[in-house]
Amino acid sequence: MADPRTHRLRLWSSALVVGVVLLAVLVVPPLVQLDEQAVDLSRKLLPPSWEHPFGTDDLGRDLLLRCVYGLRISLLVGLVAALVATVVGTAVGAAAGALGGWTDRTLMRLVDTFSSVPHLLLGIFVVALFRPGVWPVIASVAVTHWLSTARIVRSEVLSLRTRPFVEAAISGGATRWRVAVRHLLPAVLPQAGLAAVLMVPHAMWHESALSFLGLGLPSHQASLGNLVQNARSSLLAGYGWPTLFPGLLLIVPTLALAGLAGVWRDRLNPRRRSELML
Amino acid sequence: MTAENVLRALDAVSAGRAEDAVLSVRDLSVRFRLRGGRTVEAVSDADFDLGAGECLALVGESGCGKSVLASALLGLLPGNAETSGTALLADPDGAAQTDLIAADEKTLARTVRGRRVGLVPQSPAAHLTPVRTVRSQLEETVRALTGTSRRARRKAAEDAAERAAFPAGHLDRYPHELSGGLAQRAATALALIGDARLLLADEPTTGLDRDLVDRTVDELRRHADDGRALLLITHDLAAAARIADRVAVMYAGRIVEIAPAHRFFGPAGPRHPYARGLLDALPDRAFTPIPGMPPELSALPEGCAFAPRCPLATELCSNRPEFTANLACHHPEHPRA
Amino acid sequence: MLELDTVTAGYDRRAPVFRGASLTVAPGESVGLLGPSGCGKSTLARVAALLHRPDAGRFVLDGTEVTAWRHRAPRELRTAVGVVFQQPRTAADPRLTLADLLVEPLRATGRRAEAAARLAELAPAVGLTPDLLGRRAHEVSDGQLQRACLGRALALRPRWLICDEMTAMLDASTTAALVAAVETYREETGAGLLAVGHDRVLLRRWCDRTVEWKDCLPAEEGP
């Protein structure tokens, strides 16, 4: 574990960033009642100012507002996708680890098959099946991200399965279902939760990548990926801010999330309690 | 002369090595501050000397603070520990002394651990790196301690293995290829490399079977006979009986009695009721447990910590007994006839 | 009757831990199995506790042969044998309080209603005070945790008890206390005991007879 002061600094700075982001995406849109799609060609590509802190884009739309909306949709996609992927991954991993035998072999070969295809390619394939929208993107992210959780959970379950406390439960008459639900699953849930939090940034990046390629959300919808994509032409024309701010919003909150996940991980693996700490 | 006086005199002879003590512990206390303001008094006012060639066994139930004492002597306590008191370690030339409690981490790392204090660990399997051979681990330790040439390193590693009775033919094996006994010897060899005068053995026999326990402690005894001071921390009274010169009994963080082993395990027996209770619990004796359980180190009673379980407790025991003449009890048992 | 008849068991069919081991424990009898560490006596204990399926030979418990089973031995036989392991730290689910740990077998077998009453009997029987029952494994000492593990093994009132090195990690007083708790239970219920261990003095004092494990096989020996 890092020394307590850097530890605390990491915790609070991460918490602060995540708090501000959550506040912005939850409170700002319903409060300000402004239209992030409002076009005003007389005010296009204005640099950051008091009136438009993030400047405006090539259609004169306020970038701060668009960034907030973009972050909101990206975060939503990231969270839902991570949740779906974690639930699927945990279920598959727990089933494979707890049941073993051919169930394990079948499920893990499935995982291997999915992993052998490059993630982005698989993601593109999934979104290409549907009309652009939020749900295909979530499905695309979930399909490519449950694999690592399944592996983590399975190996965790496998290592727990031979512990004497599981044998004691079996000896005490517990069914396989009860062992899985009462003893194995609670033991892996913190790990799975950690994997889920760490997955949110990945999911956000995945969404942005798809949107940047024009395969994600409909291009008029403000998402971080779409914002960067739309700003590309402005960047070539020498206007940096339309890419800078969405780019930063893609990086800083995800780093903060990873920071929080790190603190959580340290909590999960505390220094082994010695005899005297009782 | 009454029997009691004879005992005192005998005890005094056994303990009369204070001036040439390798380790001299005075009023050593270790406290842990936990979240929520609770304090765990893991070790309170420990007071003992350990001479060259002597084996002192520190016995007590698990959780009584004996391992904390060992960690304190090695400066390996976690950050929330508060220590007070002194633990003076004699320098090899005998002139100066180092206070293990006050010394900073750099001094401990560069001049004490491995060089002047060797640790024989509780579970050798966990103490050895699983992916490297015994030889490479020994040689690495030699290099860390002395920085000698490659050839000298090889020799020093083999010497240490020999001193620990670790067969040379097994040096190129990995820890998982060793039996429990050999793994224990490999760990002991690591502890002996720096030729430390003080050996700390923290529960070196836990989980070993009896023959292996006997062999392990006999080997430790041999290192004491070579002139090293040996602090054997154990809950295994039979192991202590086999090799110890003196026995220190710890209860709820306090040393309650220090007695010469021949008296402690002999017909006279210890004088503290807790120590007598421990012996009576042995399967080759009365095999009766001490009633109740030890108190929490975070909620110690005001007076004698053993009083709630003690058959001899009286009102007097609500005052904490002082540790004088190697005993902390208001109602010490008189020696058995 | 708990009967192992020329049982072979291990984790690899080509290299079993032991071959052709035979051992019987009569109802109400206590048998100590002595042997050095790593000789396979723990595997034998797991076979006797119906946690490990033998590769060959017969295992008969109270007249029912339970040699062939797939994932788990039948529940009514499994619960007829209580088992206590060497290391309480790994044998206790770290998320459960000691109270939950003690009555977990009752809950697992659908006898939730009896849990409170059984807890009130079990806790004093193994010497656990009420203030300890609300704590989790990491908040108690090894000895206290092992008391809870013994209580869990007794929760379903098994006819047989297997103690695999139950006291190897414990001090003399806790050892004597746990042995006393086992003996009290056996006097009340007439349960049979197989105590596996390496401490000759302890097992000879504790058990009606001891069996010495020689060359990977238990050989009969006097009391």
TrEMBL record, chain A:
Its main location: membrane. Gene3D superfamilies: MetI-like. Residues 71-261 form the ABC transmembrane type-1 domain. The keyword Membrane applies. It is found in: Cell membrane. The chain crosses the membrane at residues 73-98, 110-128, 184-205, 244-264. Keywords: Cell membrane, Membrane, Transmembrane, Transmembrane helix, Transport. PROSITE patterns: ABC_TM1. InterPro entries: BP-dependent_transpt_permease, MetI-like, MetI-like_sf. Coiled coil: none annotated. Belongs to the binding-protein-dependent transport system permease family. This is ABC transporter permease. The lineage of its organism: Bacteria, Bacillati, Actinomycetota, Actinomycetes, Kitasatosporales.
Automatic annotation (TrEMBL), chain B:
Keywords: ATP-binding, Cell membrane, Ion transport, Membrane, Nickel, Nickel transport, Nucleotide-binding, Translocase, Transport. SMART domains: AAA. It is a peripheral membrane protein. It is found in: Cell membrane. It catalyses: Ni(2+)(out) + ATP + H2O = Ni(2+)(in) + ADP + phosphate + H(+). The complex is composed of two ATP-binding proteins (NikD and NikE), two transmembrane proteins (NikB and NikC) and a solute-binding protein (NikA). This is Nickel import system ATP-binding protein NikD. It comes from Streptomyces flavochromogenes.
UniProtKB/TrEMBL annotation, chain C:
GO terms for molecular function: ATP binding. It comes from the Bacteria. Keywords: ATP-binding, Nucleotide-binding, Transport. Pfam families: ABC_tran. Residues 2-223 form the ABC transporter domain. Belongs to the ABC transporter superfamily. This is ABC transporter ATP-binding protein.
